[in-house]
Amino acid sequence: MHITPSAFHRTPFPQEPLSTASATGTSYWQDAWRRLQNNKLAIAGLIFILLITLAAIAGPHFSGYSYADQNLPEANQPPSSMHWFGTDNLGRDLMTRVLYGARISLSIGIAASLINLTVGVLYGGIAGYAGGRIDNIMMRIVDILYGIPLLLYVILLMVVLGPGLLNIFLALGLVYWLGMARIVRGQILTIKKQEYVLAARLTGASSARILLRHLIPNSIGPILITTTLAIPEAIFTEAFLSFIGLGVSAPMASWGVLASEGVVSLRSYPFQLLYPALAISITMLSFNFLGDGLRDSLDPRMRK
Amino acid sequence: MNTTILSVDRLSKFFVLNRTFLGNAAATVKAVDTVSFSIFPGETLGLVGETGCGKSTLARTIAGLYSPTEGKVLFKGQNIHCDHGKETNMLFKRQIQMIFQDPYSSLNPRMTIHDIIEEPLNIHKLAKGKEKEARISSLLLQVGLNPEYGSRFPHECSGGQRQRVGIARALAVSPELIVCDEPISALDVSIQAQIINLLEQLQTELRLTYLFIAHDLSMVRHISTRVAVMYLGSLVELASTEELYSHPLHPYTQALLSAIPIPDPAIESHRKRILLPGDIPSPLDPPSGCKFHSRCHYAMPICQKSPPELTATDLNHYTACHLVK
């Protein structure tokens, strides 16, 4: 085969670049969301949490029954087309009560996570960042609060204020940020010695800026894990308090109340325990899966 | 001399390790002990010494990260550790910047390269909108990076690229003095040369002054105008590069220089090393008098008693040794 100069010809120079050399940068959160989508379990958890939240908000309106109205002739019915989850010993529709219980359990979960994310993160962050004597005093306060059992607070509060949902919120608010404060402080203590924090201080960054832009974003992994573990823990604490009769009062129903009622009739009507127990377990699993997924996806080093 | 850009006057920095129950110091590390020297505009002052001799502490104190225990650091005649009001303080922070040793921990892993370089511009409100974007691009170009790197995260860059980002961040506020705290010791040898060349190029372009800390003696010789040698928190010798490498006067400097390998096997095999006896003493409990006397071949009785002052033995050659007077 002969190659002659006439075999070559000049292509016209492209007016527009055919393709830009690098992809446009995706933002941090876009990137995290894309990675989260690849995690099937986390997405399943997220979908379940969204579903149960929706059901908790809308469900009780559409079930056609009230959580409180008793209907003794229909007591202890097994699941049927009329009552999907059956009825309890007073003839109340169990599905309505489980959905209603979801409201209470989820709002306690939300309250716990809010307390963790605000009070816990800021308290721990300030203690870790300030260091020295301030850190010492702040963390000794945490230690003292940690030493008093949660149950003691709750019982004392119930004595003073009477049992009720609000007092559970109060009790959780008093102590639920302690673990988070400890974890955030530990993280901040290690991160604040990193050279990028020194570099930021060198350019004159204010303490608030260093805390909010450098220290807390870099401890987001442990913060999220702690939060996602605190939510089911708070839900469980409420269930336990309701189980021993210190929680929400009748006829209100939380999952803990329903479970404790279900235990009584476990031998004759096992479905009365099954549904609230399922609700508690699946919700806790969902939060854990979501927390795991978030931790992986929020870390840019996991980027592929 | 008023021509100095930075003068360090009897600077000391002690760290308290333990406190007694009542809060009194039980153990202190004298990381930097009464150090004085000056830096002239446009020069590179090399600072060498073993690990743990206080180089980094000195660098961070000069940059304003630590406040000194005693003494002062004057930048163009003004004490940088005094409070001059918010605006002047911020101005000092613009004029002295630092390049760090570890390119892996000196960049925030959650910020893109663009955001890392943008931060100092935002803090000092140096530019806005399009002007700011243009400044970031030109900074990246200046350190030899494609502006498209801006959208990357630090973990997507190599060590050399990260170090370039660190340099761009330091340059963002247009400083006059840059404290380079072992900027090349964490890099591969081929990358070290690139970074050194970049630093030299930037020095001529932007008329920068460097305080260059390293323990690679050949690199320091290459880049420095003058070299200072540090031992256990004190300066032992300070001279122009040529003078120091050809006529080291302090026994420690002589031992240090004898450790430089020579890239010629024939000469290298005949190289005489001065081996110092013992280990470097703990900075918690430094020897009395001249701190070097416990390892010095020429130690005399006076060395154990009084610490030698840094004195000029020649024009621009300062040595702290009782032998050299």
Write a structural description:
- The complex is a heterodimer of chains A (304) and B (325).
- Chain A has 304 residues and is an all-alpha fold.
- Chain A is built from twelve helices and no strands.
- The longest helix of chain A has 37 residues.
- Chain A starts with 27 loop residues before the first helix and ends in a 6-residue tail after the last helix.
- The relative contact order of chain A is 0.14.
- About 3% of the residues of chain A have low confidence.
- Chain B is α/β, with parallel strands linked by helices and 325 residues long.
- Chain B contains eleven helices and twelve strands.
- Chain B has an eight-stranded mixed β-sheet with strand order 6-7-8-3-9-10-12-11, with helices on both faces. Chain B has a four-stranded antiparallel β-sheet with strand order 2-1-4-5.
- Chains A and B meet through helix 8 and helix 9 of A and helix 2, strand 6 and helix 3 of B.
